Amino acid sequence: MRLLTVLPKSRVAQREKIISLALGGSVILLFLIGWEILFQSKIVNPLFISAPSRVVLAGITIIKDGTLLHHLGISAREFALGYGAAVVVGFPIGIILGWFKLARATFGPFIAAMQATPRIALMPLFIIWFGLGMTSKIIIVLLSAIFPLIVNLQVAMGTIDADLVQVARSYGATRWQIFRTIALPTSVPFLITGLRLAAGRGLLGVIVAEVFGGAEGIGYMIQYAGSTFQTDKVFAGVLVVAVTGITLDVVLDRLGRHFGKWRSEAAVH
Amino acid sequence: MDIIVSKDLKKKFKLKHGQRVNNNGVISNEIVVLDGFDLKIKKGEFLVLVGPSGSGKSVFLDIVGGLSTPTSGVVYLDDKIVEAPSAKTGYVFQQYALFPWRTALSNIEFGLESRGVPPEERVKTARELLALFGLSDFEDRFPYQLSGGMQQRVAIARALATKPEVLLMDEPFAALDAQTREILQNELIRIWEGTDTTVIFVTHSIDEAVFLADRVAVVTARPGKIKDIIEIDLPRPRDGDIRSRCEFATNRHKVWDALKAEVNKAQQDWKLAPAFAS
Ligand SMILES: Nc1ncnc2c1ncn2[C@@H]1O[C@H](COP(=O)(O)OP(=O)(O)OP(=O)(O)O)[C@@H](O)[C@H]1O
Ligand SMILES: [Mg+2]
């Protein structure tokens, strides 16, 4: 690692960035234009495909009449509670599994089995147990988000640098000191990766759960709009979900960069 | 007065199932690394260990540092048997092993931090050491932002921060280029000559050994024991110029004469041996 040197963000890199933004942007733009043309030309039944312009109009409508805010609020609360619980529970579980061999041997198989179970298939059970309200969704988010966290932190503990542990031992550091000064810092990049994966899974979880069986929330709004042939509103809802997902990922990426100052540019890329 | 005494030291490692090793003609599942390793180190002396690769020098340092326990025999540090890392020893590892998430300053603070020294005092000591190694402008840099030589300086400063009576250094300059290596040797000897620290220093470079040492202990091919001890009769304080004096060459030859046979014994590939003479 020490062999990697830091390249200053040269002008070349800046230009590359602009070019890649322009390329990526134009593909999206072309797609939207094509979509609009397809709609306007009426080759396909407009009822089925909607159009960017109509999605925007539908978006404005649901913002104005408060529908979006209402459903978004519900989904956000479900997500936040489930995700928060996943972090609070998943972080220590991952660390413990990674740090103590015995814990890994004891709980590893159980956790692997849980992880292999398709969570969303359990939704009917959760509805029976917890009803159609927020609780069943929170559980789904929790179960979707927790495993990437557990797995990443467990892996992190395995990457602890044995040389650093020797250094700490040579200064008479206790096991707890080694944990605090070596294991925790080592886990940070893995925690960030886990948080990002967990956010994606959790978001998916909340939407699917609401589509599947809910009376409120963005997923429900999409599902209801779909079953009443309001394609514009379906797309508007999907767009909201996508933007939320991207925003979350960007925020977590920033957070990761903030805590990853000590890693060489090449390692963070 | 002897600060470190190793008596009849023996160290064996049990290998993994199915692994075999040849211990002087006997095939076994246990590798004998040290066998009858007896060495007395005087308080305040600079002792250099040389010996073929795999002869157990690092294992010996680990035992002195309390990181590893001998199979039999003992090491005394100030007349007490070493059983765990002692606050009196500092260890500079071959791989610099800096904490990548800590700045230069906070790396140097580590040892003091482990021992519960309050922050202001830690920072003060660490800053003094940075200045001593000419790194004051780099205190807020992370290891990846430092050159190899700077990283090694930080690693040495970290070991010095706890004011050890005994400093263990395992090939600390091996990974550096020739110029940086000489500069750091000069720096180390300048700093050491101002202290009464005892140093055990491992190296493969005979020049380095002769330049630094009061005595050079030659270790045999595995199983390691002390083959010979050579007094280096060069005056102190020493500076870089001493390397070109003819007494220097005489001492080099003495060390190489003792080492040659062991290196040849250790290396099946004889072509590697001359590399030690350079
Ligand atoms: N944990 C271990 N398990 C098994 N064998 C080991 C272990 N540690 C060291 N050895 C063996 O002990 C021998 C001596 O190792 P050591 O690292 O002390 O050599 P060294 O003299 O420091 O060599 P070098 O000059 O190459 O650093 C080697 O043959 C090595 O394979
Ligand atoms: Mg070694």
What do you see in this structure?
The complex is a heterodimer of chains A (269) and B (278). Chain A has two domains: 1-43; 47-268, MetI-like fold, CATH 1.10.3720.10. Chain A is 82% helix and 0% strand. Chain A contains twelve helices and no strands. Chain B has 278 residues and is of the alpha/beta class. Chain B has two domains: 2-88 and 164-276, P-loop containing nucleotide triphosphate hydrolases (Rossmann fold, 3-Layer(aba) Sandwich), CATH 3.40.50.300; 100-153, no CATH class. Chain B is 34% helix and 25% strand. Chain B has eight helices and twelve strands. In chain B, a hairpin with a 2-residue loop joins strand 2 and strand 3. The radius of gyration of chain B is 19 Å and the shape is globular. In chain B, 43% of the residues are buried. Classes of the chains: A mainly alpha (269), B alpha/beta (278). At the A-B interface, helix 8 and helix 9 of A face strand 8 and helix 2 of B. The structure holds adenosine-5'-triphosphate and magnesium ion. Residues 57-58, 170 of chain B line the site of magnesium ion.
In short:
The complex is a heterodimer of chains A (269) and B (278). With 269 residues, chain A is mostly helical.
The class by helix and strand makeup of chain A works out as mainly alpha
Which ligands occur here?
adenosine-5'-triphosphate, magnesium ion
N-C termini distance of chain B: 34 Å
Radius of gyration computed on alpha carbons of chain A: 23 Å
What composes the largest sheet of chain A?
Answer: none
Rounded mean pLDDT of chain A is: 90
Order of helices and strands of chain B: EEEEEHEEEHHHEHEHEEHH
Shape of chain A: flat
Task: Look at the structure and give the CATH class of the largest domain in chain B.
Answer: Alpha Beta
> Uncertain spans of chain B, ≥5 residues at pLDDT below 50?
269-278
What is the total domain count of chain B? 2
Largest sheet of chain B: 6 strands, mixed
SS strand fraction of chain A:
under 5%
The CATH superfamily of the largest domain in chain B appears as P-loop containing nucleotide triphosphate hydrolases
What percent of the residues of chain B sit in helical stretches (DSSP H or I)?
25-40%
Beta strand count of chain B: 12
Shape of chain B: globular
Rounded Rg of chain B: 19 Å
Compressed to H and E, one letter per element, the order of chain A equals: HHHHHHHHHHHH
